[in-house]
């Protein structure tokens, strides 16, 4: 990993990796499916204008080993996410969440609305629209998951490629573990109860959808756009899938930077 | 050794092009293929077969649990087992599943199994599988990351419900009950024997050893494939300093007996090809939800047979779906009674398994052929292998029913007359 410095914070006895890069106003980032195995072009671009702080979430790479198995309820997840943000000194700062990271970012903001300045949700999930749940990320084989998550699966596959010299088995275990952590949070329909709480978000929110998102049905979009009581801006990034940070990293970072800069 | 007759209850009328035109047999199998009026006959045929097997002298008859599955029509094996408790008298009744984590509260399992044990006069073997990914995580929506913890907790609760005589409260991570006090309690003390069907997880082997339970490998791919799993099991038992009593283990084997091998090939070809061609058409999408397989098992590079079957399904041609290949690979043991007996003796010895569960009905085999296979096995194979292990080992894991003379029998003479009421 290059491009960021790595530190560790301790929460509930587990060590969590925190990557920090860039300078300028601070922004926290919660990553999407699979977490982050290495520093990405999206984060790199974002760090050109901001101090980007990326803590690992429980069970994801760098996320306290099997810390996720201690989390039985959404309240457990939220308290853990809040403690992680506090540990990174991300209190009252801008916060970006991508996919499942957006589910948590939205929910911590709903519960502690004063502790997030501006919220950016990229392809958010966490609300289930009745009979039309999100696409099942555990209903495809691991080989086909990148094509579900990305319009350009090669970018995600490159990110997931094992670095030379790494332990193959441990690499495999870490990715299965990340997938398990996602399942623990979202199984089976991706509903974390956010619908009940999203109305508590009163700060400014930017929502970005990939035009090629195959995970979140279009019918879900109004649930997020109309949910917060604060002002919501909605944008669509052409050519991007669900994980727009891999499909269109530079354009996504620019879109977010524009939004945060103008309103800051 | 113990010879047990096992039924999967497959739907027998899947279309010829099932494999080509359907993603799989499980979870999202096309419900339009299910005809309840045809299934009415299937269920009744299957129960006839189980009852027939009991009269033929098998030590036990076995049922199991699957959900949203075209080759296993028993979402509730307890329903079938309860009828068997009434309609059979001597054979043990092996319920090789309730998947404990699926039941809320799990005391429901304790109650229903206790009912079966009481109705049958103490003939129940209680199987507690974790359950396949398809059944538990996809069809029943259990979170794979919590499944095993739920399972172990449910096990503790069921066992306490069976054995504690005082009302108790249970405050688990997943189950909280202020009053646990099941009625009825099982006949068998301290509780019915507990058997654990497993796919090859190291933790399951260790847990069976710790709890002194029978480990069962329910293989669809015969003993040649099962041998490596069973060797792993016995190596672990040795490491844990457990005696190599073959009755610690069970194994499932398909068999087809006829007067000659040629006749067996002719008779069993269609049902065998139906089972391996259509019933084992498993969609790999549902085989490995994250967290279902523990990290220790992943690190040990042990793979369950459902995952194996699913992987084979993705590589066409690798699963043997034609009779000659099915036989070559040892999925099914077929032949004359001598040939089948010889193969089974060899397999049981090699795997050191004292409980053999035999699938004499498989695929779309009709009732008449299933009965023939069952009878041939009982009359001509069973006597040649029954003695295996008996002079060396004792089966500590077998039910202890009430004495036969103390057990109730169904009263066919009841006529509802005044005279009868006055007696």
Keywords:
heterodimer, A: 264 residues, alpha/beta, Rossmann fold, 8-stranded mixed sheet, 33% helix, 19% strand, globular, B: 423 residues, TIM Barrel, two-stranded antiparallel ribbon, 42% helix
Write the layout of secondary structure elements.
The complex is a heterodimer of chains A (264) and B (423).
Chain A: E1 5-11, E2 14-21, E3 26-30, H1 41-46, E4 51-55, H2 74-87, E5 93-98, H3 100-111, E6 116-122, H4 145-149, H5 153-160, H6 168-186, E7 204-210, H7 221-225, E8 232-237, H8 244-247, H9 249-263
Parallel strand pairs in A: 3-4, 3-5, 5-6, 6-7, 7-8
Antiparallel strand pairs in A: 1-2, 2-4
Chain B: E1 2-6, H1 18-21, H2 36-55, E2 60-63, H3 77-87, E3 92-95, H4 107-119, E4 124-127, H5 133-139, H6 147-163, E5 168-171, E6 176-180, E7 194-198, H7 202-211, E8 214-217, H8 222-239, E9 249-257, H9 261-279, H10 295-299, H11 305-314, H12 323-328, E10 332-335, H13 337-351, E11 355-359, H14 367-385, H15 418-422
Parallel strand pairs in B: 1-2, 1-11, 2-3, 3-4, 4-7, 7-8, 8-9, 9-10, 9-11
Antiparallel strand pairs in B: 5-6
Helix pairs in contact in B: 2-14, 3-4, 4-6, 7-8, 13-14
Model description:
The complex is a heterodimer of chains A (264) and B (423). Chain A has 264 residues and is an alpha/beta fold. Chain A has a single domain (5-263), classed as Rossmann fold (3-Layer(aba) Sandwich), CATH 3.40.50. In chain A, 33% of the residues lie in helices and 19% in strands. The model of chain A has no long low-confidence stretch (mean pLDDT 96). In chain B, helix 2 (36-55) runs parallel beside helix 14 (367-385). Chain B has 15 helices and 11 strands. Chain B has one domain: TIM Barrel (Alpha-Beta Barrel), CATH 3.20.20.30. Chain B starts with a strand and ends with a helix. With 423 residues, chain B is an alpha/beta fold. In chain B, strands 1-2-3-4-7-8-9-11 form an 8-stranded parallel barrel, surrounded by 8 helices. In chain B, strands 5-6 form a two-stranded antiparallel sheet. The model of chain B has no long low-confidence stretch (mean pLDDT 94). The interface between A and B is medium-sized, with 22 and 21 residues.
